[in-house]
């Protein structure tokens, strides 16, 4: 039982990175396809990915150490077991004539069988709930193929990674796993009490959504923060030089790049949007500085100055209060107003007389 918990712990440790490599791209392509990210569906997919990883690791872990005599020790001990329902015979052998519900449930053979049934119950549930498979036969077949994949992985010693098998290939596992998947599919009939994760219709793509706006600024901010943390911070220990380099980075990324790409940073390119002037004229450095300079560079400079004053002055409460007040005003103007206004143009766009449109559009309604 401890080995099972160890596998789950391993999944928890390594899952976030694997999820980022699988679920995040899915969410992005879902967004590109239908115009928004279905939070409920993405969350359930995230849970499914964690389950799939854990189920696979339960069939291969713990990995044994390859030592001298590794295969000699396992000769005759991990041969394939093709005889079906062997677990019934093992269970009766363990209870030794003491046939009672308690003794059967307590036996090791029953526990292993129960675990094999439980292993793919979630798969059957997800097939109907998440992937909208309505056919019980198809769901059962998928469960059988998943179990067969696990057994072939064991039969081939992790596809040749080990010199010989270290786990059994068992027909009983195929039977019990498949039965578990069928049970999960039946249980999923009652999933109507859970949040709806069915695919929704396409969103009207005539306007830039709030999701697009904030995902774009999130991607751009993340790139700038990572570059600052891993590149700029290690160049010098001079506070003012570092501040100058950070301002230069912000200017280059948000202003110079936007000018060269007709209103698109990497984040906006990724989300398929761009900045244009309300009067339809070409973007200029003056407009971009008005848009980004006042609302990105200015808050950064205020933050750097406030940090310096707080670090060097004895009574820093006033500086901290003023800085927090400034941030509150900035947040209202750049975030809250964007939410409240029907056209989603915050102070940033209104000050610079700009707006955001889909990259494949050239007009302004």
Please provide a written account of the structure.
The protein has 16 helices and 2 strands. The chain has 365 residues and is mainly α. The protein has 2 domains: 2-193, no CATH class; 210-358, no CATH class. Helix 8 runs antiparallel to helix 10. The longest helix has 33 residues, at 2-34. The chain is elongated. It starts with a helix and ends in a 7-residue tail after the last strand.
Give a nutshell description of this structure:
This protein is mainly α and 365 residues long.
How many domains? The number is 2
Spatial ordering of strands, largest sheet? 1-2
H/E series: HHHHHHHHHHHHHEHHHE
Q: Describe the biggest sheet? A: 2 strands, antiparallel
Strand content: under 5%
User: How much is the average pLDDT?
Assistant: 77
DSSP summary, beta strand count: 2
Instruction: Supply the number of helical segments.
Output: 16
First and last CA, distance: 64 Å
Stretches where pLDDT is under 50 for at least 5 consecutive residues are none
Radius of gyration: 29 Å
Class per helix and strand makeup: mainly alpha
Features:
365 residues, mainly alpha, 3% strand
List the helices and strands and how they pair.
Elements: H1 2-34, H2 39-60, H3 70-74, H4 86-95, H5 101-106, H6 108-119, H7 121-129, H8 136-155, H9 157-160, H10 171-187, H11 210-230, H12 239-260, H13 266-271, E1 273-277, H14 285-312, H15 317-340, H16 347-352, E2 354-358
Antiparallel strand pairs: 1-2
């Amino acid at each position: 039982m401890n080995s099972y918990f160890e596998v789950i712990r391993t999944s928890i440790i390594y899952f976030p990175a694997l999820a980022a490599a699988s679920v995040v791209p899915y969410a992005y392509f879902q967004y590109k396809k239908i115009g928004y990210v279905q939070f409920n569906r993405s969350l359930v997919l995230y849970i499914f990915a964690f389950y799939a990883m854990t189920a696979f690791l339960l069939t291969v872990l713990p990995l044994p150490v390859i030592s001298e005599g590794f295969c000699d020790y396992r000769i005759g001990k991990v041969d394939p077991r093709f005889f079906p329902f062997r677990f019934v015979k093992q269970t009766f052998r363990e209870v030794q004539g003491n046939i009672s519900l308690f003794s059967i449930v307590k036996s090791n053979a029953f526990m292993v069988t129960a675990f094999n049934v439980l292993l793919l119950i979630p798969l059957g549930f997800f097939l109907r709930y998440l992937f909208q498979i309505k056919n019980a036969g198809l769901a059962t077949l998928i469960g059988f193929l998943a179990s067969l994949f696990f057994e072939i992985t064991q039969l081939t010693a992790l596809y040749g990674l080990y010199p010989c098998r270290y786990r059994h290939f068992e027909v009983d596992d195929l039977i019990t796993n498949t039965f578990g998947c069928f049970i999960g599919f039946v249980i999923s009939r009652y999933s109507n009490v859970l949040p709806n994760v069915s695919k929704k219709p396409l969103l009207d793509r005539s306007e830039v959504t709030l999701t697009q706006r904030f995902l774009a600024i999130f991607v751009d901010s993340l790139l700038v923060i990572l570059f600052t943390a891993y590149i700029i911070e290690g160049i010098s220990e001079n506070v003012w030089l570092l501040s100058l380099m950070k301002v230069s980075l912000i200017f280059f990324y948000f202003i110079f790049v936007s000018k060269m790409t007709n209103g698109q940073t990497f984040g906006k390119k990724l989300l398929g949007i761009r900045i244009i002037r309300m009067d339809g004229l070409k973007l200029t450095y003056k407009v971009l500085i008005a848009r980004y300079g006042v609302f990105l560079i200015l808050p950064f400079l205020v933050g750097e100055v406030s940090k310096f004053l707080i670090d060097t002055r004895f009574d820093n409460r006033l500086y901290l209060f003023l800085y927090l007040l400034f941030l509150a005003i900035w947040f209202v103007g750049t975030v809250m107003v964007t939410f409240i206004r029907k056209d989603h143009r915050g102070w940033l766009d209104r000050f610079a007389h700009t707006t955001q449109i889909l990259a494949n559009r050239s007009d302004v309604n």
